[in-house]
Amino acid sequence: MTAKKEKTGLVLEGGAMRGLFSAGIMDVLMESGVTFDGIIGVSAGAAFGCNWKSRQKGRALRYNLRFCREKRYCSWYSLLTTGDLFGAEFCYHTLPRELDPFDGETYEADPTAFYIVCTDARTGEPVYRRCDKADDESFEWMRASGSMPLVSRPVRIGGGLYLDGALSDSVPLKYFESLGYTKNVVILTQPAGYLKPPARFRGLVRFLLRRTPAAAQALLDRPAVYNAQLRYVEEQARSGRIFLFRPEAPLPASRLCRDPKKLQATYDAGAAAAYARLEELKRFLSE
């Protein structure tokens, strides 16, 4: 009897502009013919990871270098005038439809299952959405996944209200395993030894998010939840059950970096990590 093929998955955490490290890795893997049965992305992991399914190598880097200093893309001006630090209409509709077109036809034809993680702003619980279509609703799910609390409005989709997926499930490895993805590659955007510090200004957070108290609690609980997820990922990596990419040192780009040189260096660090371990990765996926 032929053994059943294991489902391969790619798990992408967020980190805003640190996500260009993940984009560099993905572009090298795409160029090298590596494939996955499914991808799950959180926040920047969703916004950049969708380019895998549309097979648009280099797109995430290209538009970030082009628009990183554009006030409609990410700025305090955008926050003050629209309520979103990352301009909702510009980032999730104007840019992919007009300025750097997203290849929706290829996205929909590609067999890779693509999942996005959001947080239900009313309950604080994670919501997992499979997006097979490259339509406005899918772009709104991507927007919701990256809608950081305190600097973004909750995104209304249907009857729901959603925020950044990192609030509730920053590294959704366990969820992907529950779907049957048993051979997973995980990309983190912080180096080994990083732990998220305890939340500060707890009273202020509760006040600012008083309309969505469950989301406020998820934000306050996030350090403990995230650090526990890191421990699980590291245990799985040590046992050989997953293949783990992470930067060797803190990345040049911070979450809200607008320096093109640092963005390029962050992408290059990901590409270098992928080239250095490409054969090792291929053996892991084929065993």
Topology at a glance:
Elements: E1 7-12, H1 19-31, E2 38-42, H2 44-53, H3 59-67, H4 76-82, H5 88-99, H6 104-109, E3 113-120, E4 126-130, H7 136-145, E5 155-157, E6 160-164, H8 173-178, E7 181-187, H9 202-208, H10 213-238, E8 242-245, H11 260-276, H12 278-286
Parallel strand pairs: 1-2, 1-7, 2-3, 7-8
Antiparallel strand pairs: 3-4, 3-6, 5-6
Helix pairs in contact: 1-2, 1-11, 3-11, 5-7, 9-10
Structure description:
This protein has 287 residues and is an alpha/beta fold. It has 12 helices and 8 strands. Strands 1, 2, 3, 4, 5, 6, 7 and 8 form an 8-stranded mixed sheet that branches. Helix 3 packs antiparallel against helix 11 (260-276). The longest helix has 26 residues, at 213-238. The mean pLDDT is 96.
Query: Span between N and C termini?
Result: 18 Å
Pattern of helices and strands: EHEHHHHHEEHEEHEHHEHH
Give me the secondary-structure category.
alpha/beta
Uncertain segments are none
Number of helices: 12
Q: Major β-sheet, in short?
A: 8 strands, mixed
Strand coverage percent: 5-15%
Average of per-residue pLDDT values: 96
Helical coverage, percent range: 40-55%
Shape annotation: globular
According to DSSP, the number of beta strands is 8
Radius of gyration over alpha carbons?
Answer: 18 Å
